[in-house]
């Protein structure tokens, strides 16, 4: 039995700008895991972004913007490895091997593929279909044991475990690839759309009013929360009272996550409060927490060379961990390493 070093890996796609969902569901928690008992590796997954069309110039900006978002939120490149996926070719190489391990039937069950492909499944890229096996490669290339993600990525992390387990079994490789744990914690694992509490807040929704972007300034943040859809009822006395009120529940969860308390604590503070009181308090809190991050992102974005230098260093460190694991994988699979 090998004991795998506790190691965290997670990634964010540079497709469109970062949202409050990415921040609360992912980045903020990445920062919390830094400096603990784990080695932390965070990646801007540009190869995942191109599974749907990306304008090349926009992709470059978006890649740097995600990196800036990580750094501005508190990811410290001297404590964590921060890099962009395409610069470590081993991701694509291991991804191919996993394409030969994963089964078509497994891919067909991926709900995110079904949602994204919709009725257009014949026309989407082959990469979009194979996406989850590249994601498994991202994680397993570092023998990562813990994967902090939002709720929407749970199925992909479970698939990663299935791929690891099938590989280990088929090649009689013991526990060469660890069975990683998804870490889905806190009150904001699924931040919802501000205009429709039944839909996830996403980078690509139709209206800008339905999401908070990490680059929004204080006025925009305040305006979006004040205009967020709610129902006419005041906040209830207990959390149970939010059961069939998705928009209200979402705002309470966002408040809880931003202020690092439980949703129960928010309800006990605001029981009976109307939206005229709660929304401005939420807007103020969000501005207090997010405006410094967006300002720092804007500052960093003016220095793309600095961002690139950080990513380059991170890529080298990532590659140094990845290469021996990839080479060992080749040996296990029976590929002749003739050079
Ligand atoms: P992506 O880029 O869609 O999202 C990045 C992270 O943000 C989380 N997230 C949310 N959390 C809460 N509420 C929301 N509304 C919300 N929207 C997004 C996501 O759950 C995710 O954690 N396939 C991944 C990227 C990826 C990856 C990996 C993640 C590629 N390889 C390896 C972990 C490990 C994705 O598309 O995330």
Description:
The longest helix has 30 residues, at 304-333. The protein has a 3-stranded parallel beta sheet with strand order 1-2-3. Strands 4-5 form a two-stranded parallel ribbon. With 339 residues, the chain is mainly alpha-helical. The model has no long low-confidence stretch (mean pLDDT 96). Helix 1 links the parallel strand 1 (7-12) and strand 2 (39-44). It folds into 2 domains: 7-183 and 303-333, HUPs (Rossmann fold, 3-Layer(aba) Sandwich), CATH 3.40.50; 208-299, Tyrosyl-Transfer RNA Synthetase (Orthogonal Bundle), CATH 1.10.240.10. Helix 7 (126-140) packs across helix 8 (154-170) and helix 10 crosses helix 11 (263-270). It has helices spanning 20-33, 46-49, 56-73, 90-99, 104-108, 111-117, 126-140, 154-170, 218-226, 246-259, 263-270, 275-301, 304-333; strands at residues 7-12, 39-44, 80-84, 146-148, 181-183. Bound molecules: tryptophanyl-5'AMP.
Structural category is: mainly alpha
Please count the beta strands (DSSP E, at least 2 residues each). 5
Query: Spatial order of the strands in the main sheet?
Result: 1-2-3
CATH architecture annotation name of the largest domain: 3-Layer(aba) Sandwich
Question: What's the gist of this structure?
Answer:
This protein is mostly helical and 339 residues long. It has helices at 20-33, 46-49, 56-73, 90-99, 104-108, 111-117, 126-140, 154-170, 218-226, 246-259, 263-270, 275-301, 304-333, and strands at residues 7-12, 39-44, 80-84, 146-148, 181-183.
